[in-house]
Amino acid sequence: MEMALTADPISAERAHELGLVTHITEPGQTVGAALDIAARIARNGPLAVSATKQVIRDTSLLPDAQAWQAQEPFAARVFSSNDAKEGPRAFAEKRLPMWTGT
Known about the structure:
Largest sheet: none
CATH class of the largest domain: Mainly Alpha
Number of domains: 2
């Protein structure tokens, strides 16, 4: 509230302390750090990533019980997908998953 009402600037370190940013980089390293995070996200199943983003958007202001209930349709779609079968299969076969988004 203080930041919103005063519009006082804060340092990256303070923003990190407050949980407003998750990573602080050295000057000139921001794009590389962002690309590293994007690559980690891209290794995950696209259905799960999409569902996770939607659940977080839809439930961030709900009480816990409602949030859990609201995510059930997303979980059902993800867990019944071809990608849900591919993940464990790839793990068992010691290979990278071949996500199809289906």
